[in-house]
């Protein structure tokens, strides 16, 4: 795992180099969000308010809230609505109630259309008021709730009977008749006082008469998450997952990126770094070429966390680097000799750089006063999984060319071990990179296919696996 700290510049480089790939993933996430909105259609919520007159304690209001959303009320509302295939059980999850300020209970109903949401909240509010009126006396028994009303009727009937008895008595002719009328008036007064005390003691007297405060307003927008919210959330989720995935992969990547690390893994000396144009293409089979075009289209053809490509003014600047590498290689050899250029299989950047290096070495083979001329280079590709290097023939050393950020220390150690097993001394290492600019071609530059003609493939004898 890399110990490099993830900084804003790292995230900026990721967004810049993977912008097309991230944009494609964001579009895919938006399509997934749209599909989720189709599977889960939008819902609409309407609210109706019920006023509870009188003085109510907080716990009593909470009790009424529970009653408003209870199955007894919702089942009655479902029966009144009569929606096909929608029962009270299905509506219980769509109805909610809460206590607002001022002894007001807000009943909310959720449905798939604004019209149905309005009908549901209105019907539940009406059934709640009716059900609360039935249990206002403290019981849900209709017979017990009707008891006080029957008593009042009997008291009224008794008052009428008292009036009839008072009229039938001899009005004031005898002392007995006066006493009878006085007793009847006292009985009437006692009955009226008893009814008054009954009304005062009845809790339904001050807490009955709940009122629905008008019909529910028809909703104009869907409740979250809406279709647009799902689309945006899907795009954002895929984008963030892609960014986090890239950063996590970079943190866990064990491929060597710097020249000192590569040279240390190979146990050799770094002779220099060279560059090849980023626009160059190599011949691949049709299937691989198609995949390569897709990777270039998405912008994933190169590693996003690799160092930024350098820009040279022209091709002469690149060729100077190749000549300097050839000069350092020549200085490490006492006489013109043949050198085996080892390139990891699949490293196209290194293969192109090796071809250019071969062309530069062959461009000036004449000896100089201080040396016997450039060595003759031969390129071979070696698999990093089972490295096999040709046995030593006329070569007197091996030069390893590879690109940065492509291979782990274990893979490079295996390549170096294969060179040693084939009796090749690793005389140096060259790290290849790319340039994004496309400078004008120099007249003295050899054709690029001529550089690649020095590369050889095929089975090799000797080496270590």
TrEMBL record:
Biased composition (Low complexity): 438-447
Span of domain Polysaccharide chain length determinant N-terminal: 4-62
Tagged with keyword Magnesium: no
Keywords tagged on the record: Cell membrane, Membrane, Transmembrane, Transmembrane helix
Transmembrane segments: 21-40, 228-249
Annotated spans, Disordered: 438-465
Principal location class: membrane
Keyword Chloroplast: no
Cellular compartment(s): Cell membrane
Record-linked Pfam families: Wzz
InterPro entries per the UniProt record, alphabetical: Bact_polysacc_biosynth/exp, LPS_length_determ_N, TAT_signal
Record GO cellular component, one term: plasma membrane
Membrane-topology descriptor: Multi-pass membrane protein
Family per record: Belongs to the CpsC/CapA family.
Name of the molecule in the record: Membrane-bound polysaccharide biosynthesis protein
């Amino acid at each position: 795992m890399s110990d490099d700290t993830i900084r804003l510049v790292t995230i900026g480089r990721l967004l810049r180099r993977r912008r097309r790939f991230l944009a494609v993933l964001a579009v895919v996430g938006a399509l997934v969000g749209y599909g989720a909105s189709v599977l889960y259609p939008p819902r609409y919520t309407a609210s109706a308010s019920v006023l509870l007159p009188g003085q109510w304690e907080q716990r009593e209001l909470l009790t009424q809230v529970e009653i408003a959303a209870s199955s007894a009320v919702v089942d009655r509302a479902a029966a009144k609505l009569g929606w096909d295939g929608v029962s009270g059980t299905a509506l219980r999850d769509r109805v909610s109630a809460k206590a607002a300020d001022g002894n007001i209970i807000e009943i909310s109903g959720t449905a798939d259309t604004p019209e149905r949401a309005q009908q549901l909240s209105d019907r539940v509010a009406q059934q709640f008021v009716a059900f609360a009126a039935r249990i206002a006396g403290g019981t849900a028994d209709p017979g017990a709730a009707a008891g006080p009303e029957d008593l009042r009727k009997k008291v009224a009937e008794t008052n009428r009977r008292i009036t009839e008895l008072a009229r039938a008595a001899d009005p004031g002719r005898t002392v007995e008749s006066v006493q009878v009328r006085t007793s009847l008036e006292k009985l009437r007064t006692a009955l009226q006082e008893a009814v008054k005390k009954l009304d005062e003691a009845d809790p339904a007297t001050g807490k009955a008469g709940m009122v629905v405060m008008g019909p529910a307003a028809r909703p104009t927008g869907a409740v979250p998450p809406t279709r647009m919210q799902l689309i945006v959330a899907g795009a954002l989720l895929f984008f963030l997952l892609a960014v986090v995935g890239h950063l996590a992969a970079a943190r866990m990547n064990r491929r060597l990126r710097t020249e000192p690390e590569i040279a240390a893994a190979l146990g050799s000396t770094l002779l220099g770094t060279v560059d090849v144009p980023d626009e160059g293409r190599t011949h691949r089979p049709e299937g691989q070429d198609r995949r390569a075009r897709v990777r270039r289209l998405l912008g994933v053809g190169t590693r996003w966390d690799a160092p930024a490509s350098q820009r040279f003014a022209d091709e002469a600047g690149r060729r100077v680097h190749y000549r300097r590498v050839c000069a350092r290689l020549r200085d490490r050899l006492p006489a013109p000799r043949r050198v085996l250029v080892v390139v990891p299989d699949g490293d196209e950047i290194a293969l192109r750089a090796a071809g250019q290096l071969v062309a530069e070495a062959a461009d000036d083979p004449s000896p100089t006063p201080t040396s016997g001329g450039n060595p003759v280079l031969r390129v071979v590709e070696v698999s990093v999984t089972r490295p096999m290097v040709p046995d030593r023939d006329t070569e007197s050393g091996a030069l390893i060319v590879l690109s940065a950020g492509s291979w782990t220390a274990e893979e490079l150690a295996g390549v170096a071990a294969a060179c040693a097993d084939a009796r090749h001394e690793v005389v140096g290492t060259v790290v290849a990179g790319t340039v994004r600019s496309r400078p004008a071609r120099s007249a003295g530059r050899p054709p690029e296919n001529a550089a690649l003609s020095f590369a050889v493939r095929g089975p090799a004898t000797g080496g270590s696996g």
